[in-house]
Amino acid sequence: MTNNGLYVALGDSFTEGVGDWDPSRPNGVRGWADRVAEQLTLADPGWSYANLAIRGKKLRQVIDEQIEPALALEPSLVSIYAGGNDILRPKVDIDAIVQAYDSAIGRLRSGGAAVLVFTGFDSGQSPIFGRTRGRTALYNELVREAADAHGAILVDYWRMKVLQDERYWDVDRLHMSPAGHILTAKKVLEVLRASDGLDVPELDTLPARDRIQRLKHDARWAREYLGPWVGRRLRGVSSGDNLSARYPAPVQITPET
């Protein structure tokens, strides 16, 4: 992609940047979308960027709250990824939510923007989140069909098997680490055929754990992260309830911002 313009990122915690912690930035995160915007701006200062994504949002919330504000900005490029929070709920109608997603992608395309969408991540190796693998596979097939129907650009997150390495994930095991966000940004830039000056950091050596140590490690994770996450679901609250969009109006950002 060589034309300059406005890039607008839509979605939930994945696109907001959770896991790539940076206290100097809005909501305390950076993320792959920021990194993509930085690289676009470095290659062509004519690019600007808005990010309307907020953690915890389900697909219909993303559609209802973010599509129209995004279109009002008249973007030339939009990325949208939603549905992961729906898939993790006890019950979900995948066909219904992706039908709504299909319509939203069409609405964005009708505004003249190039639209970038993602398949869902393959969590098959996770003993907890792996239980939703079948749902994600169905979601992915329907998203592929929607992308084909509307001429959207697809980033195949499912096939990024390198991300199966736990070092690409934050301690909560639900959001990517900085290295994971950088790797995803590189993939997005590759799909966009844009220049890429990003370096993936060298990964730390995984600690050796015997069976007892792994059980203790998993128990601590369940107590500190899984339990509170389940509790929020049961109470009907979200970690993003009191947050606003990080960049609701266009800005220019660089790695030094």
UniProtKB/TrEMBL annotation:
Domain SGNH hydrolase-type esterase stretches: 9-181
Keyword Hydrolase carried by entry: yes
Keyword Hydrolase: yes
InterPro entries: GDSL_Rv0518-like (IPR053140), SGNH_hydro (IPR013830), SGNH_hydro_sf (IPR036514)
SUPFAM superfamilies the record matches: SGNH hydrolase
Domain of life (superkingdom): Bacteria
GO terms of molecular function: hydrolase activity
Keywords: Hydrolase
PANTHER family, sorted: GDSL-LIKE LIPASE/ACYLHYDROLASE, PUTATIVE (AFU_ORTHOLOGUE AFUA_2G00820)-RELATED (PTHR43784), GDSL-LIKE LIPASE_ACYLHYDROLASE, PUTATIVE (AFU_ORTHOLOGUE AFUA_2G00820)-RELATED (PTHR43784:SF2)
Protein name (Swiss-Prot/TrEMBL): SGNH/GDSL hydrolase family protein
Source organism of this protein record: Arthrobacter caoxuetaonis
